[in-house]
Write a structure and sequence with these properties.
single chain; 5 helices; 57% helix
Length: 97
């Protein structure tokens, strides 16, 4: 019997275009049920796909604080979320439900 070798799935490896990143974030908004840490983790996935160093620089944050804020283990400040979203080249919008 041969062993099956598996590797850990990393969504960041599959977020290659801005459209894919936006679609992923939109899907996470739908699944989050108000969980801010879930959204922060999703933004962290996108930031890793784009390159944390560049995103941190564009957001005006240190790389270490960006990793902490987007770890999914805490709820970052809304101003941090807005800075990261802008640095990722994404835009938030609202619509009536």
């Amino acid at each position: 019997m041969t062993k099956t070798i598996t590797t850990r799935y990393d969504v960041a490896e599959h977020l290659r275009t801005p459209d894919e990143m936006a679609a992923y974030l939109e899907a996470c908004f739908e699944e989050a049920n108000g969980d801010a840490a879930f959204i922060a983790k999703a933004l962290g996935d996108i930031a890793r796909a784009k390159g944390m160093t560049q995103v941190a620089r564009d957001a005006g944050l240190s790389r270490e604080s960006l990793y902490k804020a987007l770890s999914g283990e805490r709820n970052p400040n809304f101003d941090t979320i807005l800075k990261v979203i802008m640095a990722l080249g994404l835009k938030l919008h609202a619509e009536a439900v």
